[in-house]
Design brief:
Layout (H helix, E strand, L loop, with lengths): L8 H7 L3 H7 L5 H13 L3 H14 L3 H13 L3 H14 L7 H10 L3 H13 L6 H13 L3 H14 L4 H13 L3 H14 L4 H12 L3 H8 L10 H16 L6 H12 L10 H9 L4 H9 L4
Helix pairs in contact: 1-2, 1-3, 3-4, 3-5, 4-5, 5-6, 6-7, 7-8, 7-9, 8-9, 9-10, 9-11, 10-11, 11-12, 11-13, 12-13, 13-15, 15-16
Length: 303
């Protein structure tokens, strides 16, 4: 539990999701309090607001921490070139840093600097992020993309042995198993995650897997078990995005009324929704679908 006596006023505004007040007043506060509030916003996926704060700090007095935060924000918003620029600066000025090194490695691999990425993943897992499930699962994904399939499978299995309900690892491991021709085990991995993981992400992962597999019957059957009213505000919005992808983007039959309804629901969300949509994007592109529109809809989920 956070000790509220140590939380500054600006961070309290951020915690209360009073983002307009944060943006109106943040310049009144000391730099260390602005950084703390920006970090809180980043940790809670409020990227566009935190970028305003990091940008101000960088204009006033550059620091490795502000460059790191800004780099992560850009990466989460899919601007990988800007992310790399800031993260290169963050780690060049603090080369012994291992906290956050896995995210730097992830951005390096996005730019096909694979040897550098491997070095920073290993540094992260030997240092501050040894027990970090995000770091371990993304290293597994890196190994998969680098063609080191056996090592990737072992790394995914290791991550899930530490926490079988870690939904991101179960999603990526299932997709790798599918590529290896083991659809049955892939679905079992995701079903175990649904049974063990609290919250709604595990169910979304299984639904997305069925969408990626283009298993219409299974998608419809499982989708019917998901109640859009039993979750936070972003949950029915993501469900409607998956439905629109399946019903209108893949078959190239757009529906403007549904797009407008999605836009109206997405724009009022207070929380940012950050998911890895790369697999769906690739499938849509291979099918000759409207990838530009798909990416525009995804961007509406980011705050």
């Amino acid at each position: 539990m956070t000790d509220t006596s140590t939380v500054g006023e600006l961070t309290r505004l951020a915690e209360n999701k009073d983002f307009e007040e944060v943006l109106a007043r943040f310049k009144e506060f000391p730099h260390e309090e602005i950084l703390a509030a920006a970090d809180h916003l980043l940790d809670n996926d409020i990227y566009h607001v935190s970028m305003e704060l990091y940008g101000y700090l960088l204009a006033e007095d550059e620091s490795a921490d502000a460059h790191f935060g800004m780099g992560v924000c850009h990466g989460k918003c899919y601007d990988y070139d800007s992310a790399l620029k800031h993260l290169d600066l963050a780690f060049a000025t603090n080369p012994n840093r291992t906290a956050g090194a896995s995210y730097y490695a992830y951005i390096l691999e996005r730019h096909e600097r694979m040897d550098d990425a491997d070095r920073w993943y290993r540094a992260s897992l030997a240092g501050a992020e040894a027990d970090d499930l995000w770091a371990r699962s993304h290293y597994a994904w890196f190994l998969e993309k680098w063609g080191r399939t056996d090592e990737a499978c072992a790394a995914y299995a290791d991550t899930l042995s530490r926490n079988a309900a870690y939904t991101w690892a179960s999603k990526r491991y299932a997709l790798l198993l599918r590529k290896l021709g083991d659809d049955a085990t892939a679905r079992d991995v995701l079903r175990v995650s649904v049974e063990r993981a609290p919250g709604l992400v595990a169910g979304l992962n299984l639904l997305e897997y069925l969408l990626i597999s283009q298993d219409d019957a299974a998608y419809v059957e499982f989708r019917a078990t998901l109640d859009p009213t039993k979750g936070p505000a972003w949950y029915p919005v993501v469900l409607s995005l998956f439905d629109y992808y399946r019903e209108h983007l893949l078959p190239a039959s757009p529906d403007q009324a549904k797009v407008t309804a999605f836009e109206q629901a997405a724009v009022v969300l207070k929380d940012s929704v950050h998911r890895d949509f790369d697999d769906l994007t690739a499938i849509l592109g291979a099918a000759g679908g409207d990838v530009v529109e798909w990416k525009r809809l995804i961007q509406l989920l980011l705050k």
